[in-house]
Amino acid sequence: MTEYTPPKVWTWNKANGGAFASINRPIAGPTHDKELPVGKHPLQLYSLATPNGVKVTVMLEELLALGHKGAEYDAWLIRINDGDQFGSGFVEVNPNSKIPALMDRSGATPVRIFESGSILVYLAEKFGEFLPTEQPARAEVLSWLFWQMGSAPYLGGGFGHFYAYAPQKFEYAIDRFSMEVKRQMDVLDRRLAETEYLGGKDYSIADMAVWPWYGGLALGRMYNDSGEFLSVQDYSHVQRWAKAIDARPAVKRGRMVNRAFGEPALQLHERHDAGDFDTKTQDKLAAE
């Protein structure tokens, strides 16, 4: 491998390689004109079932399971590998061109919400669920929510990228981020040895934020064989918590929404009604 010497000033003159080379760029803004579709429900979600996308669909399905009819939503698929996030309509909702993005059209003035953690807080406050109103419980939940925001880039953009997606394997990078991810798993394991959920005795938006990333890792669903590589079975308290959340019916539904990969029976590209889970998965559509 040829040693790289950085130039005095970096310039973008070639693709950076790797699985996402076609969509990475050093500038913001739209690349093409494309309006976003709008469905019949007050909440319009534009997303993909990555861990960040799953956070929000799990939250919406949990709210619906509690009987909040105002949480009904249309979920539209944003194919990031095709550059849908750079369409003009999407950029109007999220100038950062990242999924998920939500429009709340329930009031006189539509409200845009972007960044998954912000969406979780917005929905929790709107419906009065999954975020305590009293201290210190509220601070504990928010602390773990923002722990995920600060920690997950080391798991995804760091470890996941260099372990699974980079065009070459770099020992230094993989070792560096493996060490950090294992430290993070130990942080979670120690916390979950003390409490049933991250915020305490009650399931909250902190769990919904952390579970798609670290629960997915614990359950062997992330980055090929990375679970074995990182010995995730050793984190027994994380394993208990991950399996308990995985068994929730709303979580099972939330994982299916805007999913465009994996087993066809678990892919619901768009969700507009609760009945879509029974009739609109990719295996059902292929059989028509």
Descriptive key words:
single chain; 288 residues; alpha+beta; Glutathione S-transferase Yfyf (Class Pi), Chain A, domain 2; 4-stranded mixed β-sheet; 45% helix; globular; Glutathione-S-Trfase_C-like; Glutathione_S-Trfase_N; Thioredoxin-like_sf
CA radius of gyration: 20 Å
Shape: globular
CATH topology: Glutathione S-transferase Yfyf (Class Pi), Chain A, domain 2
Distance between the termini: 51 Å
Name of the top-level CATH class = Mainly Alpha
Proportion of residues in extended strands: 5-15%
Number of strands: 4
Given as residue ranges, the uncertain stretches (5+ residues, pLDDT < 50) are none
Biggest β-sheet: strands ordered side by side in the sheet: 2-1-3-4
SSE pattern, N- to C-terminal? EHEHEEHHHHHHHHH
Helix residue percentage: 40-55%
Number of helices: 11
Average residue pLDDT: 96
Could you say how many structural domains there are in total? 1
- The name of the CATH architecture is Up-down Bundle
What's the oligomerization state?
A: single chain
- Which structural class do you get from the secondary structure elements? alpha+beta
Largest sheet: 4 strands, mixed
Organism: Rhizobium loti (Mesorhizobium loti)
Pfam family, one: GST_N_2
InterPro entries: Glutathione-S-Trfase_C-like, Glutathione-S-Trfase_C_sf, Glutathione_S-Trfase, Glutathione_S-Trfase_N, Thioredoxin-like_sf
Protein name: Glutathione-dependent disulfide-bond oxidoreductase
